[in-house]
Amino acid sequence: MKTRFNTLAAAGLASLLAVSGYALADNGQQKIAAVAQTQVTPAQAIAAAQKQAGGQATEIQLKGKYGTPVYHVEVRNGQQEHTVYVDAVSGKVVGSKAETEWKPARKAAVSLGRAIQAAQSTVQGRVMEAERDSNRGQLVYKVDILGTDNVPHKVIVDANSGKVLNSFVDYDD
After folding, report:
1. 150-159 — which CB contacts under 8 Å span 24+ positions?
2. Rounded distance between C-alpha atoms, residue 170 and residue 130, angstroms
3. How far apart are CA 22 and CA 32, in angstroms?
């Protein structure tokens, strides 16, 4: 009886892992399909979002979940964090939401747009995602780029100097 239960549990776990692996792979394929459809650059989406929310962009993600690619741009204005949705084909703001953050944002000398430019000077391609993050206490931008060879890359940019710290092929996304 115990062996049968263990076998069933193992089969269930294997099925769950297979489905979640498929979902992760499908998410990567959705990003790649969204990149192919974009007409608007990340810089244009960031400008539209900052104009809408009146702050500094800290993150951008390209999503194409329902067939239409949309940039999700996080903009910080004081304690307010706005998520602004920008149509990646037309460049129009299609929605936004705001929430209050209790923790003040760390200041970066380099803008998200400038970090993306630095990353694209290292790896040619189209940006799928970029975010400001802390790496062992150092403020950095992590930029995901789909290279011109359709290989995903991650580029780490120092948020204070704009210098590229690292670049590598990233099949995890």
Report:
1. 150/32, 152/28, 152/128, 153/123, 153/125, 155/118, 155/119, 155/122, 155/123, 157/110, 157/115, 157/118, 157/119, 158/110, 159/108, 159/109, 159/110, 159/115, 159/132
2. 14
3. 15
Q: How far apart are CA 77 and CA 25, in angstroms?
A: 35
- N- to C-terminal Cα distance for the chain? 41
- 111-161 pLDDT, tens digit per residue, is 999 999 999 999 999 999 999 999 888 999 999 999 999 999 999 999 999
Q: Is the pLDDT of residue 44 over 80?
A: yes
Structure tokens at 83: 């998520």
Q: What span, in angstroms and rounded, lies between the C-alpha atoms of 127 and 41?
A: 8
123 burial class (0-12, 13-18, 19+ CB within 10 angstroms)? buried
Question: Given pLDDT bands bounded at 50, 70 and 90, which one contains residue 48?
Answer: very high
